[in-house]
Amino acid sequence: MSELKYIIFSDLDGTLLDHYSYSADEALSTLTHLKSLNIPVVLNTSKTFAETEIIQKDLELGTPFIIENGAAVCIPKVVFTEQPDDTVELGNYWVKSFSLPRKYWLKLLGQQSTSFKGMYKGFSQMSVEEISSLTGLSAEQATRASEREYGEPLQWLGSDESKNIFIKNLEAQGANVLQGGRFMHVCGHCDKGQALNWLVSQYRQHYQQHDVLTIALGDSFNDIKMLEAADIAVQIRSHTNEFPVLANVEHKTIIQTEHFGPKGWADAINDILST
């Protein structure tokens, strides 16, 4: 019987990072334990490359990471022995993209500006100070958050009814609209689940003599596709929303945590590894 290899995919804000403090302190000992077991932790986030690369270094992760809600997978060259097909070389990474660039979606949003004037504000319209105020990030962190490559986060200011019409209009023109913990994200038809599946296929080639089992952890609606794609879905209790409803998961393991953020994250991973 072949050895089982776990791969963990994790959202950041509200999941591995505390929703308010952005701290992962309550999960650090579990992360250290996972490293000792050679279990990859793949960050799967709405954050930018610039933001995620810093967090990778802070958490001492040398694993691939997925940015901007599944828009791209960034693989450090040391992870696999050969460059995966359909990737491009960017610095120290091989990158697989799933979305059109940000400028395409900004142009599409510009076409909506008259009908929905004053109802939303995108990161491209905000100063670093505004982004910092809305997120609680430092000025340096907010600058990295603004460096979007594939999509545009929006602060919605209008009614729920107008929001639904706005979303339908964008979707009719080919956009994908995802609701995160703080912002609405306008991007291409990519998601965290699609990126997860692609990266898992690369790991299966890498671990040819082993069975692969995936664990995904997330707290928000833009995590749904990631959670549905994994073998074990861990829904982290959120300060901002109820547990999102998952579909087509009858034969999968679903865990809903008692605790919020990194405390719930660590409890769930420790429970899974102990069974």
Task: Provide an overview of this structure.
The protein has 275 residues and is of the alpha/beta class. It folds into two domains: 4-98 and 190-274, HAD superfamily/HAD-like (Rossmann fold, 3-Layer(aba) Sandwich), CATH 3.40.50; 102-187, Threonyl-tRNA Synthetase, Chain A, domain 2. The chain has helices spanning 28-36, 49-58, 102-110, 128-135, 139-145, 160-172, 192-206, 224-229, 261-274, and strands spanning 4-10, 41-44, 65-67, 72-76, 88-90, 93-97, 120-122, 152-156, 176-179, 184-187, 211-218, 232-237, 253-260. It has a nine-stranded mixed sheet, sandwiched between helices. Strands 7-8-10-9 form a four-stranded antiparallel sheet, with helices on one face. Helix 4 crosses helix 5 (139-145). The protein is globular and about 60 Å long.
Q: Which topology of the largest domain does CATH recognise?
A: Rossmann fold
Give the beta-strand count. 13
Order of helices and strands: EHEHEEEEHEHHEHEEHEHEEH
In DSSP terms (H or I, runs of 4 or more residues), the helix count works out at 9
CATH homologous superfamily annotation of the largest domain = HAD superfamily/HAD-like
Sequence of strands across the biggest β-sheet: 5-6-4-3-2-1-11-12-13
CATH architecture of the largest domain, please? 3-Layer(aba) Sandwich
| Overall body shape | globular
* N-to-C CA distance: 18 Å
Low-confidence stretches: none
CATH class of the largest domain: Alpha Beta
Total domain units: 2
Q: Major sheet: size, sense and barrel closure? A: 9 strands, mixed
Mean pLDDT: 94
Radius of gyration (Å): 18 Å
Query: Which range does the strand content fall in?
Result: 15-25%
State the share of residues found in helices, binned by percent: 25-40%
